[in-house]
Amino acid sequence: MDALNSTKPDDHQILVEEKLSARILTLNRPKQLNTLLFQMVSRLLELFVAYEEDSNVKLVIVKGKGRAFCAGGDVAAMIRDINVGTWRLGAKFYWMQFTLIYILATYRKPQVSILNGIVMGGGAGASIHGRFRVATENSVFAMPETALGFFPDVGASYFLSRLPGFFGEYLGLTGTRLDGAEMLVCGLATHFVPSESLSLLEEALCKVDSSDPAIISAVINEYSKQPYMKEKSAYHRLNVIDRCFSRRTVEEIISALEREALNKKDDWISETIRSLKRASPTGLKICLRSIRQGRLQGVGQCLVREYRMVCHVMQGKPSKDVFEGFRAMLLDKDKNPKWEPSKLEFVSDDMVDSYFSMMDDEGWEDLKLPARSNLPAYAIAKL
């Protein structure tokens, strides 16, 4: 156990509390919205692996300091690494992150993520795959990757494809934000607890001394409320979303939305069309293909495939959109990315296929996931 409590220089980025048989991990980069650095992912992996083997630990709670749970991986740090060194530095981060996600998705002990604030990208990867996800009135979920020239990764092709109807395609392609009530109703969250009750909930969870998911769930239920769903929620439009986002191609999805717009004046439809037209054409096409394949794959297969895709994106072939998206949205902040290819019709099926192929690069290998054993039934169901 001493090795886990050793104080490394970066230990303050993940705070560890031991309370009876519970362990509380707090992501602690509040000014950076708890975006994940390589050493944080590496530390989480080390802790989760150790806790799974430690019979004294029954439950792991993960939360974020400040107004975010976690806004994703630290893209700026990663793009810097790629620019000064090689895309392989980025690949190393993803290898570690996807390994952590696989362990969380198949974890033998209950993990409770307290999503009191922003949950985006890698933050969703570190929580949505776990057993319990507690949303609050402060929760804001989004997978905004297509606007950055990227695609929803971190196993999103697994969890988005399992949302009701084609709601996952809608979220992944448009990057739409959801609040806590919407997260609960579509299944991204398992519970909704008002933020004022979180400290009581945490206290109660730490006293449980059990790894039985039914007992943990019952404790969270005691503090749960039925949240109010806002009238303008996209979730109320599931029938339109299913009609449009079930189409085979991104072009057909946009045409279907434009047809809906002709039938009735609706700000929501026009905003949806606008967000699709602003996003990277390459990002949209690989995102749709990824979610469609995810519907038929287990979580491990999704991660192996997404790792291939990520490596192609970081290598900048065939499109360099991720670097342009980063420049326009996060660096220069002119919010005017020049995508290349610039239109959906210029992104050929062959280009899309190439993102799903193995890398033809010396020394590159497919993601190798750790062997898992003695898994509970709910974890086996994900394989």
UniProtKB/TrEMBL annotation:
Reactions the enzyme catalyzes: 3-hydroxy-2-methylpropanoyl-CoA + H2O = 3-hydroxy-2-methylpropanoate + CoA + H(+)
Protein's organism: Quercus rubra
Any single Pfam family the record assigns to this protein: ECH_2
PANTHER family linked to this entry: 3-HYDROXYISOBUTYRYL-COA HYDROLASE, MITOCHONDRIAL, 3-HYDROXYISOBUTYRYL-COA HYDROLASE-RELATED
SUPFAM superfamilies for the chain: ClpP/crotonase
UniProt pathway: Amino-acid degradation; L-valine degradation
CDD domains linked: crotonase-like
GO MF: 3-hydroxyisobutyryl-CoA hydrolase activity
Keyword annotations from UniProtKB, A to Z: Hydrolase
Enzyme class of the recorded protein, top EC level: hydrolase
Keyword Hydrolase applies: yes
Job description of the protein: Hydrolyzes 3-hydroxyisobutyryl-CoA (HIBYL-CoA), a saline catabolite. Has high activity toward isobutyryl-CoA. Could be an isobutyryl-CoA dehydrogenase that functions in valine catabolism.
Enzyme nomenclature, EC number: 3.1.2.4
Keyword Ubl conjugation annotated: no
GO biological process, one term: L-valine catabolic process
Domain Enoyl-CoA hydratase/isomerase: 23-356
Protein family per UniProt: Belongs to the enoyl-CoA hydratase/isomerase family.
Protein name, per record: 3-hydroxyisobutyryl-CoA hydrolase
Lineage top rank: taxon: Eukaryota
